[in-house]
Specification:
Structural class: alpha/beta
CATH topology of the largest domain: Rossmann fold
Radius of gyration: 22 Å
Distance between the termini: 54 Å
Shape: globular
Low-confidence stretches: 284-295
Number of domains: 2
Strand content: 25-35%
Mean pLDDT: 88
Length: 295
């Protein structure tokens, strides 16, 4: 049986009295695009460090069938980690970056990289500092997509890029790199930009997984309904897990609710990942009075 890309049981990490990971169970099969989403200090970085063999942990963890803490060198032959696609050594020339990548990663294909770069205006003798931000993104994409990795870990990969280049990055990643043999793990605060490519969603808070589901299950489970002041109390009687007010309309989130009943009292739709994040990860407060306002 082919091992899961990531398999963790009871994964924990403490820094003194601070709990960074709290008995986490996680299984990620091959061929998935997983969003690991959480506020600052939630445990995302600690989890990534454990997966990449860069941090200690207790519990069981296998990545591509290997223990990252014991077999990191072997594991890195099949893993590619990118923290920021807009950062490359500014002093280096393009051909030097390509040669360095070729030396560092045994599964890098120079031929494939040249094919990607041929579609751009990037010259091999150009220095990185002479390239526009968009060209740096194109260069980094060419490098990443030329590595035949089974696991690609992206930690806030498009931080600082404008929306055009962020969309270009994810579109190229999805259309030209991802396949059923590869797994992509993404951490980002820009959840609205990755929602359309995710197959699985993980919310982490306080070192614990709040959500760990496929996107299909998410859309099956959660429903939002928008109601007017006249049906607010009727909707509240169905026990929403979150409520917010927008332009005088009340938007309520329900978990495994009867959509037919919800449809009779308001307009139903599926919540975005960003709205779901706010609802499930924020502190629950008392519901506002019908017709009230939120600050």
């Amino acid at each position: 049986m082919e091992p899961s890309t990531i398999h963790a049981r009871g994964l924990s990490r403490h820094y003194g009295s601070t709990v960074a990971l709290d008995n986490v169970d996680l299984t990620v099969p091959a061929g998935r695009i997983v969003g690991l989403i959480g506020p600052n200090g939630a445990g995302k970085t600690t989890a990534l460090k454990a997966i990449l063999g860069l941090g200690k942990f207790s519990g069981q963890l296998e990545v591509l069938g290997l223990d990252p803490s014991k077999h990191r060198d072997q594991l890195m032959e099949d893993v590619c980690f990118i923290a920021d696609v807009a950062v490359l050594p500014r002093w280096a020339r393009v051909w030097q970056i390509i040669e360095l990548t070729e030396r560092l990663h045994p599964r890098f294909s120079r031929e494939q990289c040249m094919k990607y770069l041929a579609r751009t205006n990037i010259q091999q003798r150009s220095k990185v500092r002479a390239l526009s931000k968009g060209m740096v993104v194109q260069l980094h994409l060419a490098l990443v997509m030329s590595i035949d990795a089974r696991l690609l870990v992206l930690d806030e990969p498009t931080l600082g890029l404008d929306i055009l280049f962020r969309k270009q990055f994810y579109t190229s990643l999805l259309n030209e790199y991802f396949d059923e043999q590869r797994t992509i793990l993404i951490t980002t605060h820009q959840v609205e930009e990755v929602e359309h490519i995710l197959t699985d969603l993980i919310f982490i808070k306080g070192g614990r997984l709040v959500v760990n589901s496929s996107m299909d299950d998410i859309y099956e489970r959660y429903t939002e309904v928008m109601v007017g002041p006249d049906t607010v109390e009727q909707a509240r009687a169905l026990d929403p897990i979150h409520e917010r007010v927008l332009f005088g309309r009340h938007i309520m989130l329900f978990d495994n609710a009867d959509e037919r009943a919800l449809g009779e009292i308001g307009e139903i739709h599926k919540p975005s990942v960003a709205d779901l994040f706010v609802a499930l990860m924020g502190e629950r407060t008392d519901l506002p009075e019908a017709g009230g306002n939120t600050a």
